[in-house]
């Protein structure tokens, strides 16, 4: 990441903004700030950023709504910040299109690591070649990032798509949750293995009758098998 990356930090707590700003300044990032959801959406309309760090509990417009509005016109990486760590909140955030989710309190170093991982993944996506992956009743277009099940287009979030793509292009190989965190999210030191479980659950729900292609290997992890 030679080019200086621009981060939009949306956080209403001044002390939290300061800690995050200092951490990213040390890593040569440019950090721009918004103190509420309304201000964040106005800024995003007029400026380009490489990633958004978005608190959920915000004045004016909450983080859920900001995330939803961003996703209407952009696939920019989004990390949600929140003091709430329940599975429902994570599922909801991922469903809205968030790429990652970090629960307060957290280490600024952890946030930096996750941002770097997401940016690496975004850069790798930009060099993908055109290809149609035929998985029987499931097809994946790696250029348009479109997934079809029985000929019907299914909407996946960025991370759901990347996890499905990784598993499906490494068929019949069992991966632990930790390996998937490293391969798909790009980090292994700070990741919560339950994040993998949450995404697998959502992918299976969207695959519907074809969900059995992702097999749980109890006590180990997951693997993908084509069901024809």
Comma- or semicolon-separated keywords:
228 residues; alpha/beta; Rossmann fold; Arc Repressor Mutant, subunit A; 2 domains; five-stranded parallel beta sheet; four-stranded antiparallel beta sheet; 42% helix; 21% strand
Task: Characterize the structure shown.
The protein has 228 residues and is an alpha/beta fold. The protein has 2 domains: 120 residues, Response regulator (Rossmann fold, 3-Layer(aba) Sandwich), CATH 3.40.50; 93 residues, Arc Repressor Mutant, subunit A (Orthogonal Bundle). Helices cover 42% and strands 21% of the residues. The protein contains 8 helices and 12 strands. A 5-stranded parallel sheet has the order 2-1-3-4-5, sandwiched between helices. α2 packs parallel to α3 and α6 crosses α7. The longest helix is centred in the middle third of the chain and has 18 residues. The termini are far apart.
